[in-house]
Amino acid sequence: xxxxxxxxxxxxxxxxxxxxxxxxxxxxxxxxxxxxxxxxxxxxxxxxxxxxxxxxxxxxxxxxxxxxxxxxxxxxxxxxxxxxxxxxxxxxxxxxxxxxxxxxxxxxxxxxxxxxxxxxxxxxxxxxxxxxxxxxxxxxxxxxxxxxxxxxxxxxxxxxxxxxxxxxxxxxxxxxxxxxxxxxxxxxxxxxxxxxxxxxxxxxxxxxxxxxxxxxxxxxxxxxxxxxxxxxxxxxxxxxxxxxxxxxxxxxxxxxxxxxxxxxxxxxxxxxxxxxxxxxxxxxxxxxxxxxxxxxxxxxxxxxxxxxxxxxxxxxxxxxxxxxxxxxxxxxxxxxxxxxxxxxxxxxxxxxxxxxxxxxxxxxxxxxxxxxxxxxxxxxxxxxxxxxxxxxxxxxxxxxxxxxxxxxxxxxxxxxxxxxxxxxxxxxxxxxxxxxxxxxxxxxxxxxxxxxxxxxxxxxxxxxxxxxxxxxxxxxxxxxxxxxxxxxxxxxxxxxxxxxxxxxxxxxxxxxxxxxxxxxxxxxxxxxxxxx
Length: 532
Ligand SMILES: NC(=O)C1=CN([C@@H]2O[C@H](COP(=O)(O)OP(=O)(O)OC[C@H]3O[C@@H](n4cnc5c(N)ncnc54)[C@H](O)[C@@H]3O)[C@@H](O)[C@H]2O)[C@@H](O)CC1
Ligand SMILES: Nc1ncnc2c1ncn2[C@@H]1O[C@H](COP(=O)(O)OP(=O)(O)O)[C@@H](O)[C@H]1O
Ligand SMILES: [K+]
Fold this sequence. Notes:
42% helix, UDP-N-acetylmuramoyl-L-alanine:D-glutamate ligase, Rossmann fold, alpha/beta, nucleotide-binding, binds ligand NAX, binds adenosine-5'-diphosphate, 21 strands, EC 5.1.99.6, seven-stranded parallel β-sheet, binds potassium ion, 2 domains
């Protein structure tokens, strides 16, 4: 697993590492520039003319080190200096002096352009664009001169490399600077990040703009050994594959878990049908679906392998609800927000509390949870909110309303807050509800209140209804098959994302949840072959 640190922590790690090694921070700048130069050469060996744009801080210093290596290797270099080099102080100044001191081949091109010159010059002779404008030191919206040069650089149809982080991305949140509603950010094909990954590099717009993310530790092999707590950890499917419950050749459907999906109120059948299909296709031995009777025929026609039972009112639930035969319950997709749904919510949650069956709560299940925020959830519940649902859950007042009646949440934080504080929100929700929280979005954050993991990434095709229902079905299915809820949440989130990527192929739009469910089935079976 890969630790993700705040910018403050990274700065402390750098300082402590330098102290421990008895080196200057300037040495780290040297290593940063040298390693970025090598990565750029590896990625784009044909590049003979390097355009390097520098800002005003240490990120600019890194860029000047890259420039020196490029010149020493015999390449042409054009520097775009937003701040004049004569005004540099400290390590960037040293990098500038060292660059000046090297001997160049007389045929080599070495130009330095200020902002105005750069905007007036045809820069298309460059083969590679290097962003050394701003790194982790950016604060607030980008100044105009940075916006102007970024627009120019982004227009160049040349490979683009960002040093440490693309200019305009905030390293703690992964959000980016905007101006007049437009993102003002360097659009990198690759980013060489230094020392350790920053939390924001797994979240939000960073996922869209950083391209391939390459970590160069600069010798800091054990970032965890400097007393700085990571904010979260990143991991990938490879690291999670062992969490897939094993399956034997001999046995029966009763050994492979019985998952129950509850939802699909009147007119709202699709969501629970998708969730139940996902549970079945990802390997649950049996799947039952409780759905409004008006939707039952639809469920049967889409997936007759699922044992659909229709309800008409909440009183049917008292009759239906013998939960002991299920190993996991997914509750909420399409449940509805009427009084029947409310009563079903209370009945089912009350019944589940008396069992040790883990419950995955999603969609309208979360809506009702926010109204009955003090209702004790079954042990090991998993909540799967998107940003809007997270707001509602966060804002719901903590008081004993279970006995006194429901409350109307009073909104105070909004989705912008959730997006900016994804790790903290997932941790807070997990603590508040004593559950595992899967905060969905670009970079899904999973927390049990203490640890936080960031999984999956961003893909435009995933912004489509029904994918959340599929995820609920997948988590429920893995729990039913024997995974611990925490492991099931991690595995399902990553499989769901990887499946969406492979199903989408080159498509950015029009990918359906049903296709992703098929993709999940394929991926689960590929993993099965690896572990069995
Ligand atoms: N500290 C270290 O030991 C190392 C730092 N390194 C590099 O140093 C970078 C961080 O350096 P700094 O902290 O100097 O920060 P930056 O180089 O990212 O930027 C700081 C400068 O940007 C200006 N600035 C801030 N917000 C701005 C905005 N919105 N619009 C325009 N200008 C803005 C500041 O006034 C300051 O001059 C890292 O990203 C990394 O590239 C590397 O050299 C590795 C070692
Ligand atoms: N831009 C995106 N990049 C990556 N994943 C995304 C993106 N947008 C949504 N997702 C994922 O798609 C799913 C959508 O869930 P949700 O919003 O609950 O949709 P629905 O309720 O319609 O099924 C979640 O797993 C979420 O993480
Ligand atoms: K940068």
